[in-house]
Design goal:
Largest sheet: 9 strands, mixed
Order of helices and strands: EHEEEEEEEEEHEHEHEEEEHHHHHHHHHH
Helix content: 25-40%
Strand order of the largest sheet: 2-6-7-10-1-11-12-13-14
Shape: globular
Radius of gyration: 24 Å
Mean pLDDT: 90
Structural class: alpha+beta
Number of strands: 16
Strand content: 15-25%
């Protein structure tokens, strides 16, 4: 019997507004002295009243529109009740049945909703006077948090990886967040289930409508909380797929639960049985009236979306005659794409693209100097040669990852030999870039 994963995602992104979601405290909390950016509102003190951040609402709608969502004409905030030390009020102001945006799509993955809420505080585990304790830092409490919820359309770890990286890129293009996983401003919560399948390869990228959307879903799901790196997300999902599959093969029953990922062990551990919506006792936030949006307001926000990465990539290939690889590299960030367009007219676009990609040039003056030197090899040719060299030398890759610098020099020598020389700095930068993802 074959088993296949069925997965959905909740992705949380902290918005880069100046102030918090419902008060005037600074939203930039990273690295600040604990509990120095708080007030009665974000501390949840009696009598404090929340006032919504207009910019945060507009930015959440902006993201929803970029993901092809429909904006609800009326939306409201709700109270989501649960008790945890980092939640000072005993409830979180979130959105339940009337989110800001619904029914979008990114690639082949359907977006169920995009809604807005406040972030929680943060627990810090420490040793004080020889005792292990948990301390609460509420600087993050109340920071605007947009949540993107997908349908259970993922069938492989690779699909998840492509989706979250694409979403991060869009968020950065919009300028609403740096979406920095290491700083916790973007966090991933996958939900993983396993079902019996006729698909021979569980990692298949096939995502047909009949299989993906209309098949019966498993009666349980396991949610993995607060993952803050792409690498950990992959490891957590891979482990959970393996764990659940083995249990089903033994005839064991899987339960709906929340699990955490232990990075040092590379495995998930049970935290609690997964709550349903009624467990949170949602009800409308009485201190914040419903929000209504006129079509003119939505249109105004939609005009701010601008050209997104995939659209820009297609245009670069068409207008400048660039390869798929070069266009992908140039549109990786909005800043790099804007720089390329600003200087594309000073020479041949393909030559300029090669210099920007391979030399990591960011200033026009530096570019002009390098234009006087014809590049030894195109970015596409260099990429092809490096891929060939790495495929032929798997042990060198392993040695490099184990910290043996001589392996890098060996690979560089092999690449230069294949190219019949070549620019050393260009080759070194391209090799390191490729090895980082190998």
């Amino acid at each position: 019997m074959n088993y296949a994963p069925v997965m959905g995602l909740e992705v949380h992104v902290e918005l880069d507004t100046k102030s918090k979601m419902f008060c005037g405290c600074p939203a930039d909390h990273f690295g600040k002295e604990p509990n120095t950016q708080t007030c009665p509102v974000c501390l949840g003190l009696p009598g404090a009243l929340p006032v919504p951040n207009k910019k945060a609402v507009e930015w959440a709608i902006l993201l929803g529109l970029a993901l092809g969502c429909t904006v609800n004409e009326e939306s409201k905030f709700d109270r989501k009740h649960y008790f945890y030390p980092d939640l000072p009020k005993g409830y979180q102001i979130s959105q339940y049945d009337q989110p800001l945006c619904v029914k979008g799509k990114l690639g082949s993955i359907r977006i169920r909703r995009v809604h807005l809420e406040e972030d929680t505080g943060k627990l810090q585990h420490a040793v004080v006077d020889g005792e292990r304790v948990s301390l609460v830092d509420l600087n993050r409490s109340g920071v605007p948090l947009v949540e993107v919820v997908t349908e259970p359309d993922f069938r492989s770890v690779e699909q998840v990886d492509v989706f979250v990286k694409s979403l991060q890129q869009i968020v950065r293009y919009l300028g609403i967040s740096n979406a920095d996983m290491e700083k916790g401003t973007m966090r991933i919560e996958p939900s993983v289930s396993i079902r019996k399948s006729q698909i021979p390869n569980p990692k298949s990228q096939t995502n047909s409508k009949s299989e993906n959307q209309n098949s019966k879903l498993p009666e349980y799901r396991v949610e993995i909380k607060n993952i803050n790196s792409f690498k950990f997300a992959r490891r957590a999902i891979e482990y959970e797929i393996k764990r659940q599959t083995e249990k089903l093969q033994k005839g064991e029953r899987l339960i709906q639960e929340t699990r955490g990922f232990v990075e040092s062990k590379g495995e998930t551990v049970g935290q609690r049985e997964k709550e349903e919506a009624h467990d949170y006792r949602y009800f409308p936030e009485p201190d914040i009236p419903p929000m209504r949006f006129a079509q003119s307001q939505v249109s105004s926000i939609k005009n701010q979306v601008g050209e997104l990465p995939d659209e820009k990539k297609v245009r670069f290939m068409k207008d400048y005659g660039l390869s798929d690889y070069d266009a992908t590299q140039l549109t990786e960030t909005r800043e790099r794409a804007d720089f390329f367009e600003a200087v594309a007219g000073v020479g041949k676009p393909k030559e300029i693209a090669n210099i920007i990609i391979n030399k990591k040039v960011q200033k026009k003056e530096e570019l002009m100097k390098l234009l006087q030197q014809a590049p030894e090899v195109s970015a596409q040719e260099l990429q092809t040669v490096i891929e060939k060299i790495l495929k032929e030398n798997p042990k060198a890759i392993e040695d490099y990852k184990n910290g043996r610098d001589q392996a890098l020099m060996f690979l560089m020598g092999q690449t230069k030999r294949q190219l019949k020389d070549g620019d050393s700095a260009q080759i070194m930068a391209a090799l390191k870039d490729k090895l980082s993802s190998a």
